[in-house]
Each structure stands twice: as C-alpha cells, then as structure tokens.
Amino acid sequence: MAKVTRIYLARHGQTVTNREGRFCGHAETELTDLGVEQSRALAVRLERAPITACYTSDFTRAIRTAAVALGERGVAPRPDPDLRELHYGEWELERESAIRKRYPEQHRLMREEDPAWRPPGGESVAEVRQRTSRALGRIVHAHKGREVLVVSHGTAINCLLSTVLGMPESHVFRLDVTNCALTEIEERAGRLYVVRLNDSSHLAGLS
To answer: Rounded to two decimals, what is the model's pTM?
Structure first.
C-alpha cells in the first residue's frame, strides 16, 4: 500500500494585531508573549512527529511560529507566498468598528459571507482558495509518504480547508481556526482527508 502523506496545519501564534482586533493580511505584526507560549505548546504537541519539511507564509508571524514549533529538528521553514493571509487592501491594520462605518456595504457582504465580498484593493475568498490549494498540492506532491508542518493564517486556512472539504465559498468561515491549534490532513491514494480539525487541547491553561 502507498504510504500516507500527513500535513500538520497550524495558524501562527497570537499577534499584536490579533489582540487589538485589527485586520492584518499582508501587513507585518509581531507575536505577543502569549503567541510565543502558544508556539511552544505546539512544539510540545508535535515533538514526536517525524516532520521532515516545513512550509510557511512569507510573513514573520508564521515563520517565527514554525521555527519555535519545529524545536531542534534542524528543519528550516520554507516561505511560500501562496500561504499568505487574505490581502485586506484598504482595510489593513484597521479595526472592524472603523470598517463598519467607512465601508458599510462591503462590511455587510463580509458578515453575510457573500462570495462577492472583496475588501477595497484586496483579495477575494476565491483567489485565496485558489492559491492555498495550489500550495497544498505542491507540498503533497513533493513529500509523498512524509510528514510536513504548514504554518499559515486564519482566513487562509479557512479557505484551504473549505476547498479540501468541498464547501461553497458562502461557507468558508464556518470553521474555527484558533491560534496554534492543530489540524491534520492526510493524502491517501490521491485523495485528501481532514482527520483532525482545530485541536487546541495542547493550549489548555494558556490565556
């Protein structure tokens, strides 16, 4: 039988913009102290996993989370722009309360999960689904029968998982994606299976 390819998928640790409630897609932001602790907890969770490769978005928060989670394996994170968060365009680094007032129609479309939603100057959900799926396909193809860590972002992971599960674009945000929670995807005989979803048990007690 062909070997199983296992992808450990995690969102980066909590960031300053997460804590402040700001939209942060292609802007840089730092991990908070809690975010570092979450990354360490993820490392403990994964310490027995025979991870041979790691891919992240090319933003610092994902790269740093992965570096901590990998521990002493000697595996270096490989940045891939296709794993980036959704680009929020003019909404970058704004709080939702301000966006609701300045862009009421686009804010309504976002909250209604309308596929027509796109932040001004930013990306649509469909575009993020396409590029994250492209990245996953490359990773699975390159590491057949291996175990790989992928660290990305909340909406990017929503987009990727909703595509794997065959969910419509109107239901992308129906999955919780917690900072440093663990999702596992297996590839068997050319088909992808989600075998663990948003498992945050290793984060118990962190706040």
So the answer is: 0.96
The total of structural domains in the chain comes to: 1
User: Any catalytic annotation for residue 107?
Assistant: no
Out of 12, 87, 153, 202, the active site residue is: 12
Q: pLDDT tens string for the chain (207 positions)?
A: 568 999 999 999 999 999 999 999 999 999 999 999 999 999 999 999 999 999 999 999 999 999 999 999 999 999 999 999 999 999 999 999 999 999 999 999 999 999 999 999 999 999 999 999 999 999 999 999 999 999 999 999 999 999 999 999 999 999 999 999 999 999 999 999 999 999 999 999 997
Domain that holds residue 65: 5-88+124-202
Please say if 85 is a catalytic residue: yes
- Catalytic-labelled residue, pool 26, 47, 72, 85: 85
> 63's torsion region: left (phi>0), alpha (psi -120 to 50) or beta?
alpha
